[in-house]
Amino acid sequence: MKITGKITNNYNADKIYDTITLQINTSMNNSIQMKSPLSKKGEFSFKYTENSTNYCELFITPDDKIPMFLTSGETVKVVADIGSLNLTAVVSGSQQTEEMQKNVRLLKGYMVEAEDLKKKYDQKVDSLEKRKNDRIAESIRRNPRMLSNLSIVSVLPIDDYYDVYQLLDENLTEAYPMNEFVVDFHNQISKTMVLREGSVITNIVLSDENGTQISLESLRGKVVLVDFWASWCRPCRMEIPNFKKMYETYHQAGFEIYSVSVDNDEMAWKRALEQENMPWPNVRDDKKVYSTLFNVASIPFTILIDKEGKIVAKGLRGLDLSCAVNNTLKK
Hints:
By secondary structure, the protein is α+β, with helices and mostly antiparallel strands. The chain contains eight helices and 15 strands. Helix 3 runs antiparallel to helix 4 and helix 5 runs parallel beside helix 8. It is extended and about 90 Å long. The two termini are 58 Å apart.
């Protein structure tokens, strides 16, 4: 069995590779690995003796493989592009592999066609959904003092129809001030509006570990991550290294963090501050004034605000949060 080939674009990749691996799976539990150097042109070759047909994998990194079924006596040629070996591989000289790739291409063609149909379907559904919502919103706008609106308004996304919720809340509160359902609706809307994206966040004023009051508003002009956490919360503590990386990366560009602890135990909070050594403002909401105001049901809970104090996003963590910070700083 002889296998030759060429890996293209190796020298245009982020990392230049000098070795390619062929894994021959001789049984369910046994395999043989062979390695070949990659020339500067990306060329490689293998020779091995095997008197049967085996499932083989050709790869540079374990995450990107070219699957093949190779039979003894074949002379096989492989051409593929670095970084997407499986997607770009063209294999010749192996009847079973060629047949497999033909079927895979056929399958991918049907998958692409199905995805295209799904996109068109989703677009039509989205259009229908918007028409439905717009008609309901217009109906509520025409008759904002009708109590029956409470039975239908919840189908409207509040971020997209904020004005409708606000109009209905104001009118029903005026028309039915003692109605239990209206009062409940008003309370729900009040909580939701506090964290509505695009609204200016309510100022927070709390004391740090030295008893000095620090207001969130004092950080206006910076992109700020408000983080509700506690010393006893393991997921909160696990997020701190990620926050430190973001702080180191973006602080000079105008990024700040404002950590709000909900610890009841002041000493536990202070010990955590010493252990974590967080180089940004840290305050404690021991009376739960702000965690209640912002309806913080679980921690960690994050609120990202822009330089004007407007809420950009909430509840983000990990890579999503880092991307949001970067995008907000660019605006």
